[in-house]
C-alpha cells in the first residue's frame, strides 16, 4: 500500500491576491516546491488562475502527509468518520482545506468551494475499494510510513 502522488490545487479568483494564495500553499508544504500556474476565464468573463503542486517523490509525500495529519489534529476524526465520502472510486483521497485559515498558518477542514484541494492517489494490492478505505483510515489516523 502506498500514496502514489499528491496534488494540491487552488483557484485564485479575480478578487484575490495570487501571492497570498501561493503563500497559503507554501504554509502547507514544509520543503521547496514548484507551483504550476495556468490561467482561464470564469463563467462571467472574470480571470482565474489555477495553482497546482504535484508531489511524486516518496520522501516528499511522506513529509507532506505526516505534517498535514499532525496539523489536522482532532479534525482527523471528521475525515475518518466520512472516509467513504472523501475517497472516490479511483482511490483518490480528497481533502479540502480552508484557504484563508491556511494562509493565516492554521489547517482547517473546509467543505465549500473556495478551498485548497489536496488529492492523494492511494494504491493497494489488490485494488479493492475496501482495502483503499482501510488504508486511507490508517494513514489519516496514524500517518504514513
TrEMBL record:
Pfam families: RNA_binding. SUPFAM superfamilies: RL5-like (SSF55282). InterPro entries: PAB1135-like, Ribosomal_uL5_dom_sf. This is Exosome subunit.
Amino acid at each position: 500500500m502506498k500514496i502514489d502522488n499528491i496534488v494540491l490545487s487552488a483557484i485564485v479568483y479575480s478578487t484575490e491576491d495570487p501571492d497570498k494564495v501561493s503563500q497559503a500553499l507554501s504554509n502547507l508544504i514544509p520543503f521547496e516546491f514548484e507551483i504550476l500556474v495556468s490561467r482561464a476565464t470564469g463563467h462571467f468573463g472574470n480571470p482565474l488562475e489555477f495553482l497546482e503542486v504535484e508531489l511524486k517523490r516518496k520522501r516528499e509525500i511522506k513529509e507532506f502527509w505526516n505534517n498535514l495529519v499532525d496539523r489536522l489534529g482532532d479534525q482527523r476524526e471528521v475525515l475518518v468518520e466520512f472516509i467513504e465520502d472523501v475517497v472516490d472510486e479511483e482511490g483518490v483521497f480528497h481533502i479540502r482545506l480552508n484557504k484563508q485559515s491556511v494562509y493565516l498558518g492554521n489547517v482547517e477542514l473546509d467543505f465549500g468551494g473556495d478551498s485548497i484541494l489536496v488529492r492523494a492517489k492511494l494504491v493497494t494490492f489488490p485494488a479493492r475499494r475496501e482495502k483503499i478505505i482501510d488504508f486511507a483510515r490508517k494513514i489519516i489516523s496514524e500517518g504514513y510510513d
